Amino acid sequence: MTTLQITRSADVLPAEEVAALTPLIEDIQRLKVERNAIVAAHNYMTPDIYHLAADITGDSLALAQLALDTDADVIVLAGVHFMAETAKLINPEKTVLIPDLAAGCSLADGITGADVRRLKEEHPGVPVVTYVNTSADVKAESDITCTSSNAVAVVESLGVDRVIFTPDQYLGRWVATQTDTDVILWEGSCIVHERFTGEEIAQHRMTLGDIPVIAHPECPPDVLAEADFVGSTHAMIEWVTTRQPDKVMMLTECSMADNVAEATPNTEYVRPCNLCPYMKRITLDNIRASLETMTHSVEIAPEVADRARRAVMRMLEVGRKD
Q1: Using CA of residue 144, residue 147, residue 149, residue 155, what is the dihedral sign?
Q2: Assigned CATH for 193-276
């Protein structure tokens, strides 16, 4: 069973920690001005990055949309590599930096472009919907991408009876329950979300009482069966900030509740905590180093980028119509 943690807003960034980090933050701010750069931080970043260094924050879809609108010349992606690739795809003229090349993704590593080509051969004519947690090579073989925020809308936008959905099997299974479209799955999963279990959540409820449980659709079906609300990181944040419950059990990566807590000071977050080791490779120190040395620049082969970009932009058009 994962460790149970409780978070309130006062725990997020103590004054002493902020004071200690001030010189480093000042360096980052100075470098951002010099480079005409922004830091785009995913919701799973640690609170020091999220609250002190980031210019834009959000889930994968929000970061993609916000990156599209920025006037900055340089985007430092405080997240994982596929997010930096996505930012580069939709901003090909900009410099996109990833502070640590080892900030990968277990889900993205579980599928290749060749795998998608084989799926298309097995199911000729069936469009491929690909979760953005994938490499540009995989996106290039896809008809359209999606995030957990818009997966159902993306599938339904195609107007077909059947789709191939890659690579997250649990997100795909959840989508299948929300639409009449037949979904062909790739059996991938995320190491953060797949570790939660329905039994674990039920045991916590027996100890803590019947508090509301909110979860990502990338969690296994037995977890979603225990949840009171299922949604993307953005939807989960909106649910909590709108309802302001006294307590909530949030099933997500460890840093997300820390980051949401500031906006909901009266809510106690009870959470089984699963860390993403890839996200945690991004630090304030390597963000500063990335800006100082302009590394590591994300580059995508043009023949891959052109096709991958079409899949991502098609997704963004669906999102902008919602």
Answers
A1: positive
A2: 3.40.50.10800
pLDDT tens-place string over residues 27-81: 999 999 999 999 999 999 999 999 999 999 988 778 877 878 889 999 999 999 9
CATH topology of domain 107-185+301-321: Rossmann fold (3.40.50)
| Contact partners, residue 216, CB within 8 Å, separation at least 6 | 148, 193, 230, 231, 232, 233, 236, 251, 252
Structural domain 13-105+280-293, CATH architecture: 3-Layer(aba) Sandwich (3.40)
Sheet holding 56-58, edge to edge: 56-58, 37-42, 74-78, 95-97
Q: Is the pLDDT of residue 254 over 90?
A: no
Q: Which amino acid is at 254?
A: C
- Do 116 and 138 form a contact (C-beta atoms < 8 A)? yes
Pick from 12-26, 89-103, 307-321: least confident: 307-321
What is the average pLDDT score of the chain? 91
